[in-house]
UniProtKB/TrEMBL annotation:
Annotated organism of origin: Sedimentisphaera salicampi
Subcellular location: Cytoplasm
GO BP: any one term: protein lipoylation
Metabolic or biological pathway: Protein modification; protein lipoylation via endogenous pathway; protein N(6)-(lipoyl)lysine from octanoyl-[acyl-carrier-protein]: step 2/2
Annotated binding of [4Fe-4S] cluster 2, by residue: C7, C11, C14
The keyword Protein biosynthesis belongs to this UniProt entry's keyword annotation: no
Domain of life: Bacteria
Name of protein: Lipoyl synthase
Membrane-spanning parts: none
Top-level EC class: transferase
Reactions that this protein is recorded to catalyse: [[Fe-S] cluster scaffold protein carrying a second [4Fe-4S](2+) cluster] + N(6)-octanoyl-L-lysyl-[protein] + 2 oxidized [2Fe-2S]-[ferredoxin] + 2 S-adenosyl-L-methionine + 4 H(+) = [[Fe-S] cluster scaffold protein] + N(6)-[(R)-dihydrolipoyl]-L-lysyl-[protein] + 4 Fe(3+) + 2 hydrogen sulfide + 2 5'-deoxyadenosine + 2 L-methionine + 2 reduced [2Fe-2S]-[ferredoxin]
SMART domains: Elp3
InterPro entries membership: Aldolase_TIM (IPR013785), Elp3/MiaA/NifB-like_rSAM (IPR006638), Lipoyl_synth (IPR003698), rSAM (IPR007197), rSAM_sf (IPR058240)
Length: 227
């Protein structure tokens, strides 16, 4: 995770501290490049806190990080899991274009009906618009999203979410069980059975998704290199 450990938002499913972040560390790309070399990482998922305080939402820092790592690790592949770049998505995508190739991922997280409860500072429509915009701008780039189950969503709501993702060009999807990360986080409403995850996996494949991970322990980066 880059761009610090303080988020400008306060999503109710997340335990990352919210507040006023420090300025991005200009040495972070070099530090990560060194770490990638030392650990001999061949597939690297890069994500960040949401940085609504930055003019490009942190996209330039994503770009700089990928380009710096590539200098010493030309065989490393990347997956970028970004926030929604509210108010600056066009500028952000222009910055990211300079760091291709990579898998692009933005997590929808939950169904539209639960956004006001789980992601009060987010927007279901805005997340879909970002994914669609990226798909139209870079149709050759694999596009991925992830969601949590167990927050009180219905099957019909999940099915609609999956169809919305497909309509935006998303090809890969990961679904996992929501687990309460802190005392102040949302309560788990349901523990989804492996059978239900299997059903949703098959449903997603029938919809045309090319790769699907769906299980209680699936997370955004779960087996990402194999998707």
């Amino acid at each position: 995770m880059i761009l610090g450990n303080i988020c400008t938002r306060n999503c109710k499913f997340c335990s990352v501290p919210s507040g006023s972040p420090a300025h991005p560390d200009p040495q972070e790309p070099k530090k990560l490049s060194k770490l990638t070399s030392e650990l001999e990482i061949i597939y690297l998922v890069i994500t960040s806190v949401t940085r609504d305080d930055l003019p490009c939402g942190g996209a330039a820092h994503y770009r700089d990080t990928v380009l710096e790592i590539r200098k010493n690790n030309p065989n490393t592949s990347f997956e970028l899991l970004t926030p929604d770049f509210v108010g600056c998505s066009d500028k952000a995508l222009d910055f990211l274009a300079e760091a291709l190739p990579f898998v692009y991922s933005h997590n929808i997280e939950t169904v539209e009906e639960l956004f006001p409860k789980a992601r009060p500072q987010g927007s279901y429509k805005r997340s879909l618009e970002l994914l669609n915009k990226f798909s139209e701008k870079f149709p050759e780039v694999p596009l991925k999203s992830s969601l949590m189950l167990g927050l009180g969503e219905t099957y019909l709501q999940v099915e609609k979410l999956l169809r919305d993702l497909r309509s935006c060009g998303v090809q890969r999807v990961a679904m996992g069980q929501y687990l309460k990360p802190s005392k102040s986080s949302l309560e788990v409403q349901e523990f989804i059975t492996p059978e239900k995850f299997s059903y949703l996996r098959n449903l997603s494949l029938d919809m045309g998704f090319e790769a699907v991970q769906a299980s209680p322990f699936t997370r955004s980066s779960y087996m990402a290199e194999s998707m």
